[in-house]
Predict the structure of Transglutaminase.
Amino acid sequence: MIIKKLVFAFFVLNIVFLNVSFSQKYNAIDNTVLKYSKFNTTENLAERITKDFTTDYDKARAIYSWVALNIKYDYAALLKPQRTQGFSYSNEAEKQRKIRQINDQLVQKTFTSRKAVCEGFTALYQHLAELAGLKSEIIRGDSKTTLSDIGRKNTTSNHAWNTVLIDKKWRLVDVTWGQGYYDSSKGKMVNDYSPVYFDTAPDYFFTKHFPDSGSFLGDKLSKEDFLNGPLIYNKTIEKEYQIIAPKSGIIEAKYGDKITFKFKNITKPENLFYLNKKNQPVKIESPKERKGTLEFEVTYDKNIGNFITFFYYQSSIVSFKMIPQ
């Protein structure tokens, strides 16, 4: 199977090496939403969703599915962003009214044009959630998407996502990343619906997202862990693989050193490999399985490049940055 090398664009979920047959898994909610015809207004769409689904969880998932399946990422707008729209106001009430007006315009533009960057995705999700009787908020922060992000020195505000309140619990949602990815080999966006960024477990979510506030639900998050941790991929989240060791995404070693790796929930080591500098697969030698954890060693040599990415059943699961001592 040919593994295509991809690069991430800001705000869009890409994979450094992506299995070209990455499965699209739709649940019953997604299949219902897939049958929806065109809606003239967001109100009509929200009314249909509340008619078809009764629980808050199902409504929130249906909104995620509809937005991810129907709104395309506007890569051209990413390359040529519009100037921030400024406005004047005389008091706080007028300020909030104008902010709502700008947000409403963004929602309608996204809904009508069927394309947006992350601000449009998050605004539309929040709007539809509120029409469906759900409470949703927009969170802005940093996204960890490329190999070069491993060991980056500082965070930057380059992305946005949502939280939605379901059964008295705030759930994490990144509908932008649920839509698809940018394929550099084709020079275009690829629609590839992924459910893994709806109600994502916080432990996974915050390896790839860091809010501007630096906290979630009052708990402080580690900026160091975010910046220096390994880069994980969709399949890791979907299958709940756990990277036990190394904890750091930065590995400093001398040629000839043996580096110990420990991955949990990976049961068939014969399907685990990494690529060398020539993009040739290298099988894992002498792996040991202990209580659901796979432990093995990789000898660091000149055939390993600046990064090492591990694959399981042809899907990338984790990348580390290699620094020779």
